[in-house]
């Protein structure tokens, strides 16, 4: 992972939506942005965390073990930020 100072913390909101929704399309709807926008942000998340984070399946996307490990801390950080 990059130095936290270089990370766009708004990406964590996208990560959280992807984790909860298990779908790029539904995450985009939840965030009120387009599906291509979320796909681009997922690419940035993957680069930031040096992991695929979510794997495409016939039933949506499934989190990798790294994404599973990040989900709790990300949710807590976002809850504290609100």
Strand order of the largest sheet: 1-2
Distance between the termini: 24 Å
* Structural class category: mainly alpha
Share of residues in helices: 55-70%
Number of strands: 2
Query: Rough shape?
Result: globular
Order of helices and strands: HHHEEH
Low-confidence stretches are none
Radius of gyration computed on alpha carbons:
12 Å
Strand fraction: 5-15%
Which key features would you list for this structure?
two-stranded antiparallel sheet; globular; 82 residues; 10% strand; mainly alpha; 4 helices; 2 strands
Could you explain how this protein is built, in words?
The chain is mainly alpha-helical and 82 residues long. The chain has 4 helices and 2 strands. Strands 1-2 form a two-stranded antiparallel ribbon. Strand 1 and strand 2 form a beta hairpin. Helix 1 (10-21) crosses helix 2 (24-31), helix 1 (10-21) packs across helix 4 and helix 2 crosses helix 3. The protein is globular and about 35 Å long. The termini are far apart.
């Amino acid at each position: 992972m990059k130095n936290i100072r270089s990370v766009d913390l708004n990406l964590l909101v996208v990560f959280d939506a992807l984790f909860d929704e298990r779908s790029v399309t539904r995450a985009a709807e939840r965030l009120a942005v387009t599906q291509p926008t979320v796909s681009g942000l997922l690419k940035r998340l993957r680069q930031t965390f040096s992991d695929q984070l979510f794997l495409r399946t016939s039933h949506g996307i499934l989190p990798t073990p790294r994404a599973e490990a990040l989900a709790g801390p990300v949710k807590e950080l976002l809850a504290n930020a609100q």
